[in-house]
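## retry 2 of 3
previous attempt timed out at serialization; input unchanged, resubmitting
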Amino acid sequence: MSLWFAQAGHRLTCCDISYKMLEKTKERFAQANQEALFYQAPAQQMAQELPPQDLVLFHAVLEWLAKPLETLDVVSSRVKEGGYLSLLFFNYNSIIFRNTLRGGWRLDTLIEDRWYGKGKKLTPPHPQRPEIIRAWLEDAGYEIKVHTGIRVFHDYLPDEVLKETDLDALMAMEYTYCREETFQNMGRYIHILAQKRG
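## retry succeeded, writing output
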């Protein structure tokens, strides 16, 4: 995603806590003859060192943090007035819905809110509730411009159903319903684009 922005002419500062992720990104930038600044550091630390930015992308990070809203406060403080925050996070509603559809032993763990660490998948420990994030952004002086559910249907289909499904038709369904209020908060991930008020 960073490379896409660089190729569109934007100046980037890229931050990741993972050395391996940064090295892969640097390689891709070099292959594409693009430049950016790269920092290996926690987002909270990096944000404190940056001047105000036109756009801050904070994607697939909140759900891994012990104190997500505290970190969001620090990171979003780097968005200048009139600038934008692009926020993507793993959706709590999806955990409940997907595991309920799968049934069995999962129901007790969901009811008792002890689902984390169960099963065989790498599930983020702190999925976020869209309504809480929206309220936080509005209280922090942001106007929600776009609210999109990512993979509203795809991730709930069993593998055998997916194999028999026309993916173009499924994508058309995703695009049709991903921003409708009834469906947007069911996406596996939620993307919110918010503008900081002046």
